[in-house]
Amino acid sequence: MSNSVLSSLDALKIELPSWGFADTGTRFGKFFQAASAIDTADKFADAGMVNKITGCCPTVAVHVLWDFQKGQDPKEVAAAAEKHGLKIGSINPNLFQDQLYKTGSFGSADPAARSAAVQHGVECTELGKVVESNTITYWFADGTNYPGQDDIRARKRRFEACLKSCYEALSPSQKMLVEYKPFEPAFYQTDIADWGMSYVMCKKLGPQAKVLVDTGHHYQSQNIEQIVAWLLDEEMLGGFHFNDRRYADDDLTLGSIDPYQIFRIFSEIHGYAAETGEYPEIDYMIDQSHNLKPKIEAMIQTVTTAQELWLKAALVDREALHKAQISGNIVDAEAVLKKAFNTDVTAMLAEWRESKGVAADPLAAYRESGYAEEIEADRTRRRKEAGITQESSYA
Amino acid sequence: MSNSVLSSLDALKIELPSWGFADTGTRFGKFFQAASAIDTADKFADAGMVNKITGCCPTVAVHVLWDFQKGQDPKEVAAAAEKHGLKIGSINPNLFQDQLYKTGSFGSADPAARSAAVQHGVECTELGKVVESNTITYWFADGTNYPGQDDIRARKRRFEACLKSCYEALSPSQKMLVEYKPFEPAFYQTDIADWGMSYVMCKKLGPQAKVLVDTGHHYQSQNIEQIVAWLLDEEMLGGFHFNDRRYADDDLTLGSIDPYQIFRIFSEIHGYAAETGEYPEIDYMIDQSHNLKPKIEAMIQTVTTAQELWLKAALVDREALHKAQISGNIVDAEAVLKKAFNTDVTAMLAEWRESKGVAADPLAAYRESGYAEEIEADRTRRRKEAGITQESSYA
Amino acid sequence: MSNSVLSSLDALKIELPSWGFADTGTRFGKFFQAASAIDTADKFADAGMVNKITGCCPTVAVHVLWDFQKGQDPKEVAAAAEKHGLKIGSINPNLFQDQLYKTGSFGSADPAARSAAVQHGVECTELGKVVESNTITYWFADGTNYPGQDDIRARKRRFEACLKSCYEALSPSQKMLVEYKPFEPAFYQTDIADWGMSYVMCKKLGPQAKVLVDTGHHYQSQNIEQIVAWLLDEEMLGGFHFNDRRYADDDLTLGSIDPYQIFRIFSEIHGYAAETGEYPEIDYMIDQSHNLKPKIEAMIQTVTTAQELWLKAALVDREALHKAQISGNIVDAEAVLKKAFNTDVTAMLAEWRESKGVAADPLAAYRESGYAEEIEADRTRRRKEAGITQESSYA
Amino acid sequence: MSNSVLSSLDALKIELPSWGFADTGTRFGKFFQAASAIDTADKFADAGMVNKITGCCPTVAVHVLWDFQKGQDPKEVAAAAEKHGLKIGSINPNLFQDQLYKTGSFGSADPAARSAAVQHGVECTELGKVVESNTITYWFADGTNYPGQDDIRARKRRFEACLKSCYEALSPSQKMLVEYKPFEPAFYQTDIADWGMSYVMCKKLGPQAKVLVDTGHHYQSQNIEQIVAWLLDEEMLGGFHFNDRRYADDDLTLGSIDPYQIFRIFSEIHGYAAETGEYPEIDYMIDQSHNLKPKIEAMIQTVTTAQELWLKAALVDREALHKAQISGNIVDAEAVLKKAFNTDVTAMLAEWRESKGVAADPLAAYRESGYAEEIEADRTRRRKEAGITQESSYA
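ok -> structure tokens follow
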């Protein structure tokens, strides 16, 4: 094993989502956890714990509506994160929850909705400047539920105009990531439905707009590593949202359903780095909300799985691979990938962690830390004091 | 057009869901409607209005947790429905919302969850006896989110045992419908995932257990009409949940995405009736919750679309179809279906409606009735008085 | 009904595929037809018959390997088509059948394969100039069957280079259409897998390269009409391959599985025309090979179905639609589409056909013509004379 | 590692398909291999080589139409197999290739097709008795391409009757496996489309009829391990066809796309064995035809991959798994699976192979054997002598 394989782990900084530590659920209800975060301070504390335990999660993504209070100085929020050793990562506007967005935000036929949405996007950009975050991450719930509901081309043009307004608010060091998703919550048509639509939009905007790939946002059987390879080749890949899925957008822990696919995605990145001499500038962000797994454990599991698969992909013998590819030897080319994938990287990961001063087995270390028990007690008490119940509401 | 075609509409009684008149949403939030039902009385009033306007929706499905109060005499609920010209239709247990059901109900490894679930199932059955409802409709959110989470065969056996306990509580005139769904809210494995699993369970239970087909609960590209045909042939089809979908379980109005598919499903039923001389005993139930379309309008649209496609399917020239099929004439066989599907049945529907004393265009009649304005004013006032807001909650 | 609705049919010229009249099959075998075309002359005769009967199929797509003989003057082929009242339509290179293309054509790691492929592309372009065909239609079977088999980015770059060489051979009046397809015959990764990949390629090539949409080449549940709308808005839609499918690329007659979807696609085109004042320059081509339906009947069925759905889509009341869309009235907007879709257009089609001097019911007219019996007898005799058997070969 | 883990490999006997050694292709053409088998003797030689190299493939599946000559004594075929150390495994009828089967075999509306099909099924059964094969494997291409083409319920009943006739021909020691497949070559409806349909048929037939699971024959996202678990629990799982797929029925080498899924399937079998004390009686058969990978190498790759994933699945700590499952500890339960899956089993496999007297690395051993060069030279010469070309035929 070369040093470069191990040091490739240094290129994998993983951003944690503040919203991943609070109670969430499906449309059928929430299952509550006593240890779930009550407020932004809790979220930062939990994210800080994950970073402390894993040594590779120095930033936390924030969700503007949920993490910033009206009138609050954003620097206070940044300071709260720093208290737990974290910097503010990507800024996530919320363009889907207000009643105004009933028929969309940037795509809505209602000028008031579009105007409010653009204003929110610009505010998020300004907020990013204040907290020194360079990434504004746009996900749109926009779309229609029924054929005919709206004019698809008109919506596309509204998107172009609104995105342009937000793009123009960027400082030179900021970038805008445009996420795509084939469906949900829109049921008939989603405005930014696939990588091609995101690409078309970003190309029109300029060099500070890039495509965001959420690993769970694809059609069944779609080849995600090919999309990643194309975006890399076009210098249009801005970031990832990490998760896994079986059916729809299931927000499962990364690699829990199909680890080989994640390995192949990472292999494309290592291949790009091998060719260009450096890793591409990509934001690796987790986007997961767990309602069954303990939230902090699930985050640690995703982080360690990402490192494990990243390392396996770094082990791909690219020279042997290239030789087999050029000579049309399919069996050997595939075997190069499989050999790397089947390698047990436990010891290597332990070595890297030791060099960073973190425990070889982060999940075990977390469990031994007593943190879970501590926050469970504390938050249970605080909920009680504040009169917050965690019971199913029968709608 | 023969009389039998028109009178075939008499066989299509459509049950309305009480929960379809209240505010609902996706996991990303709810979009509220001023006219949405506040309580069960509102729901019955709305369902009664749909029945009055369409003339073919004499029953309303109830959801036990949401429509019956602890300690309340169920007959009061039945009386409330009768006030609006309705009878109580299928009884729908809720086995997914309580915190106890975190890892499932009938399939849970937790004996307390299973016990509570069976008790609820039996209570629903008893409640059905009181309100003279003969159909208990079981949908299970049960499943697992991750590989290994639970033992699939153990869950299957727990299901067998729990279903048996509920089955045994049935009176001779009651039946139990077992619904299947491939995914959601479980993400890795759903205990009753397809028609085969529902069939296996029902066969073990006995003749009062039948399969429930929700038109939105299938894999992409799965042939629903074939499943319907097989279940009919096996005398195992107990009922339908009507809706449409494009991607997942999208709860769209029936036939809004693929009307030809619904037509083909109905054609299987007419074919069965043509052969046996009578329509099968099937409960036709709507299961839709709309957060964008006005709820009552959406229900009327589904009912009239169902009638329209049912009538088109009744127009299939079965003799010509059979002749083409037997002689291997694919083009002509297909053309028989297409001809019926392409027939404009507006006038025929008007004729049938006239004979039933309802308006030829139910949606227009509803809009002219002033009902929407009336309930909007009334419920807005009542919400105000009760301090109920319809604003997005930022979680 | 306005005149413009009826005259919109004039904009729908449908190109027939020469290969659609010969025996074909699945990988499991062929089912032969006595009336199938033996040679290119037969194919042109059959296509000419379909055009004569329908009045809207003036061109025939040719497949270079199968319709042109080595050393033959291409003008002879054009003359053979003209004999049957047809012009040569799109030129279809074959870049998948030669043993040289085992690992691809433009994407192959083998320079000899790429070189031969480019040479064939250029030859097809030159051939197009000779026979006065302005459309060169590229479909690529290129891809890989296994992870690692080849370098995805390298394949992309090879494609860029090869496409460029072919593009440069175009005369100013020629255009190049680039088709996409998610899978088959490649099983793991297809080089031009979706509209985005085709778009990226065409954009790099220049204004004479456009995207070709085959209605059967999409992921399950993908919204084809949205892709069409986007491509129209980007002025990047060059043509269609008409067919239908349920599962994979099933090559079924257009609208046989989901007619409403085809209607919605056509509605996007009419909407574009309503806005710009003219129909876009699009090649409407059939790509179907039938092994069960009689080939000529299947073509007639597709042509008449296309006209029927095109006409229904032309009936969409765009003003009412726009009004409902702008006011967020989802129910009414959808109803505008449904009303047009449900209209019986039989009489309108008959009127248009009468005005063109063709029979009101083309399929019936074809059957009465005696053509089928004639070619069946003729071709059976010729096969016998030439010693051609139509029996299953047991491999 | 306990002995029982290693010895679990003894339970995994893998059957090779005779047809997997001959040239095959997709509907777009074949890519030929010089070393491909010309006749049944070649196929047995190749299968014998795979068995010699791997030590775990003692039987070869035969395809009646392709491996047995009219009038030939079947014992000659069995003797030819024995010459290479093999026994005849499953008998595979061919009910799809004859022109008579244009609209199906057991499901056809044509009594002559059904009669021929049943006769063939019975003949295959008798042939099985002669060659001492106990497994008759039924796969049906039956289905329809268009809505209306045939009566689905009528087809179902024809299937019941024909299957019964074949079932009755079984000797007490023979069993009949009924395979399901959602689509292809039928495009609209497949008669035995899913496990439920196969199950219903087998239940009616009796205890000698079991379901055959082909790992490539499922809907996108369908949970195959759950189907396996249910069939095991119902004692209805008769066998597997091993392969992998990404999109449709892609016939890829096992585990090449999603190895974790195959691991989970095997884990269900080990779990059943752990509970019952013995491995279920299942036929593990490869069904793959490769047109790009060298055929023998692909078979060895599938066999070794199967062993590797089987062994990993045997390493699952079932006690720890059960404990985590019962206590609702999702993270730990999943980790038990992941730990086993991530274990490097190379050394263990080498140990087992050594104990069986075969090489630790079968693929390397095969390559060193010189067999590939030998058959390539021999078969090239024989093809030349027989005037067999391996060139693309331009249809």
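Chain A has 15 helices and twelve strands.
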